[in-house]
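Subject: complex prediction, re-run

Hi both,

The earlier run crashed halfway through, so I resubmitted it with identical inputs.
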Amino acid sequence: MSQARTIAELSCPTPLPARDRVLLGHGSGGTLSAELLRDVFLPALGNPVLTQLNDQAVVSVGGVRLAFTTDSFVVKPLFFPGGNIGSLAVHGTVNDLAVGGATPLFLSAAFIIEEGFSMDELRRVVNSMQSAAAAAGVQVVTGDTKVVERGKGDGLFINTTGIGIVPDGLELSADHARPGDKVLLSGGIGEHGIAILAQREGLEFETTIQSDSAALHTLVAAMLKATSAIRCMRDPTRGGLSSTLNEIAAQSRVGIAVDESAIPVREEVRGACELLGLDPMYVANEGKLVAIVEPSSADAVLNAMRNHPLGQHAQIIGTVNRENRGLVTMRTTLGTTRIVDMLAGDQLPRIC
Amino acid sequence: MKYIDEYRDQRIARALAAEIASRTTRPWVLMEICGGQTHTIMRYGLDELLPPSLELVHGPGCPVCVTPLETIDKAITLASRSDVILVSYGDMLRVPGSHSDLFRVKAEGGDVRVAYSPTEAVKIARQHPQRKVVFLAIGFETTAPANAMAAWQAKKEGLQNFSMLVSHVLVPPAIRALMVSPENRVQGFIAPGHVCTVMGCEEYESLVRDFRVPIVVGGFEPVDLLESVLMLVRQLEAGAAKLENQYGRSVSYQGNRPAQQIMQEVFEVADQKWRGIGNIPRSGLRLRDEYAAYDANRVFALADVSVEEPAECISAQVLQGLKKPPECPMFGMRCTPENPMGAPMVSSEGACAAYYRYRRHTVAS
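This time it finished cleanly. Structure:
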């Protein structure tokens, strides 16, 4: 009986005080990141352009619509299958411009280098930036270098800022999704995140998983050529597809219902995720985009995507609805429905 | 993907659900022990496929959830020391202790590292002979062999700077404790397949015998769980109480003998406190005296503190299958994965987190 008594004794954790320090999760692209924006950045810096929270700002200067964006790259390892921090720094910023419908033109590049960093590796990174920029038709026109003491950096951090031009009349924004719209995805998810993780953790699989790091502006151009009925585009980077869909659902005040069986995931990525206890919906991409398209034009956009090398595996993965506003739901492979939530911080590997 | 897709097949799952429905004539309460199984049930909405008279309640098998507050506090104390590298499974970092969590300690300068395998902690100890490396060795029987292996390896190499903060729990004593509780409602158990992969099925025989309760060792995919439910329903409707193994592709009756041997070499059975539940006699593992040099409690002379926890959340009832997470007034309001009030909201295997993550649209409506 003593056992029966002890089991009824309740014990329970104490709530923690409010956050007084920045945690790694604040940089994960999940709800902690959103909290940081809401509580710290927007109250101080908010203005009508910033508050739109798009991947790029679009501002008018002398009658020209400029798209403007910036991104910092702190990836580890610096070199990974399918790219390195240099090519990634170009692709990431080019893509943030491209998904706003902009033609990317110029980049800046700022380097924060740790004392003692290998000159050879720096050259490889910079050369790879140059190749990526040339392939994307952009030029790095300004830059900056800072060197920090050994131990005060992590080898190499890069920031790139980009500008491009948005054609008149084109208005893509994450708050434009409407009930009935279709949700299109350009290809398999999770490849960049798993490539990085496998390299970092020394995990070996039968085939090497390559990062999908790529510049998406030509794919975007092909899609925009096919129709003017695209409401919004996003590239689902950190936080994965689920975070991007949740952001669109929240900003457009709509529900999004996706079909699990329609979401492409490469076998290797699925296998690695099964092994590591991760959900590919939350794993980072660097060469994929999500488009919200008016229903009547969805097939035309899908065809345009599939005719482009970076959109061969594109799929219509879901529909925007009125129900469950602000939530993303998924029809599972069993035909049941569940929520696809935004994660609080980074996805944590499960124990068993 | 072979060996995965078959177990997520809609036709097979629906056929099993139909058979369960046709065989169920009375209400039954079934408990899946493992948090991984709870996760699958919620993720795939399996309870939506079952007849309303079948109730699935969720068991205490979330290792992160049941690790006592004292252990978390000790880990936080150690991680705050400048001479220590604390290595942990990732899931543990966000679990709230009395005043902090390991993520916060890390942000404050503590050297906290995430490992997939305990042998990585041994490797870190080898690489940093001037630092003291502590591995937070938690979990059920599933992680025990690998954790034991780390201590065994460290001893073999004569590593002076490696130790483990051990908080291991065992499934059969927990089932026994649930069954003797006067509040128990559970009439059949789905035993945890991964635990049984290590331990085998044999130790569940006495539970079946003593309590006349059917137990089916089940896997973790949707079809595994539906088949396990069907096997339990068949037994219950026939008035039978047997031990059956649904997860035969992984679990043998004997279990994994070498894994059991390394566990026995390094650990011994001891009384253990379960967070949210309390003390359960002989329900945990501790390092044997031969491994005292690798016991962080002894190495750092950690006092056996007892932390009082206020009865704010209902995790105790949730972990015993007495209540469902949405019955908690704080669920989804004051208690969310961003601001967890209790451990079951932290781990992806915790029942509260599973409900929040996959189900709050139905809860709200």
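Chain A is about 30% helix and 25% strand.

- K.
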